[in-house]
Every structure is written in C-alpha cells, then in structure tokens.
C-alpha cells in the first residue's frame, strides 16, 4: 500500500488561481480533509470573524494530523506554513486570475460557492477586482519572502494551468 509523504498541505495563491479546485482534487485523490480559509473567516452576509478568533480557528485545524488548507490570508501564512509539510503556491498571471474571478462571479451570481461560508452569496466589486489585479505587486513579494525562509517543508510553485496539470498527473493516488 502506498504511504503518502505529505499529510499537511497548504494551497496558496491569488483569488482566481484555482486554489479551491486544486484542493478539492487533492483532497479526493489523497483522502485528506479539506479546510477552506474563506469558510473559517467569513460568516453569513460577509461578516468577518475577528482576527483573534480567526487565528484560534486556524490553530485548531493546524493541530490535526492531516489536512489540506486552501486560502490566502497573508497575515496567517507564517503560522500555517510552520505546520505544513507541503506548500503549493499557484503563482499565476494577474490577467488569468482576474478573468477567473469575473467568470466565477458570473457562474455563482446570487449563490454561495461550495468553498464559502453559508450565506455569503457570490459578489464582485471594484475593490475585490483591484485586489486581485494588484496581488502580484502587493502580496506576492511577501509570500515569496516567507517561502524563502521556510525550512523542512517541500515547496512547489506552479506558474500556469499546464504546470498544475503536470503536478496532478505525477501526484500519487492513495489506495
């Protein structure tokens, strides 16, 4: 029987990069519980969880033996990375990510996405679009700095959908 090397996996990247899609595929392929940070942070009607409570929720999940956690939340990346044995950074272009968030907003308009907290209907506003567009300038450098300083954790940076496809094809299947 195959033994999976990685049991605590972070999937990070810009909104629209495909974190939730990849996380779901890996969760099914590797039989690991999936935690969406958006579902931990947001409450019904897009009400944010206070930061101390959010950190407590994250820490409770991190203490578990195995998981896949997807999401940005740069302020908690170092904490999450300290527990992970694999970090996958979807480092995609701003054009692709922006296109995908608009597409997602259209597909889920008026509905709650499966990876979101109940009562958070999909929405698109100019602030969010600007945030996605500015991710490479405002968030990516800090993310890369954190990744550079991580020891004893495998890090995989995927730069486009073809690389994700290759990653999935080489990822072992758990029997």
UniProtKB/TrEMBL annotation:
Database matches in PANTHER family: MODULATES DNA TOPOLOGY (PTHR37816:SF3), YALI0E33011P (PTHR37816)
Identification of the protein by name: DNA topology modulation protein
NCBIfam families xref list: PRK08118.1
Gene3D superfamilies assigned to the protein according to its UniProt record, in alphabetical order: P-loop containing nucleotide triphosphate hydrolases (3.40.50.300)
